[in-house]
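[agent] plan:
  1. take the single chain provided in the ticket
  2. run structure prediction with default settings
  3. attach structure tokens to the ticket
  4. add a short note for the reviewer (M.T.)
[agent] executing step 1
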Amino acid sequence: METMVVARPKLILLFSGKRKSGKDYVTDFIHQRLGNEICCILRLSAPLKEQYARERGLDFEELLGSGQYKEQYRADMIAWGERRREQDPGFFCRLAQMGVTQPVWIVSDARRLSDLQWFRTEYPGQTRCIRVEASENTRRQRGWEFTPGIDDAESECGLDHGVNYDWIIHNDEDAVPLEEQLQVLLSLAEQKAGSEAS
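[agent] step 2 finished; step 3 output follows
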């Protein structure tokens, strides 16, 4: 694998949550507030999907979407990704951070304990874990439907227990407004990014 110099981050925000909990919505919200100079969004699934598409001769852009194309390959892609992680737990984490220069990294889709462990080992002082939660009813309204082999697999359940989260974001309609829930987190990110010059 080609090596590339990666700037050391000041803060890494690792987000996890169930399908349709709103991880992308929350991380996009933070990214818009902080801006491209301060932060970037890393998606562990993007290098996974790119490598999977390359090896299977599939359409990478379609796999990135949320449509039926991705869903028909999801179970096989999960199994393939698990095999790669067994061989090298940091494989997709290293690929995701290639060429990143911003001081704040937002990892929008941590799904396994091995993802958290890798970032905590590589960047122990910078890593914070955030859980995005939404009720099953809210998730159903967003199009979620329980799928055996997916919703009961490690990729969906691996971080349900045994993780001490720094923040838990409640992403239901009747929850405290997102802006209010993220106030401390946004302040921390701005402070860490501001300390870059010092």
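[agent] step 4 note for reviewer: The chain has a mean pLDDT of 91.
[agent] ticket updated
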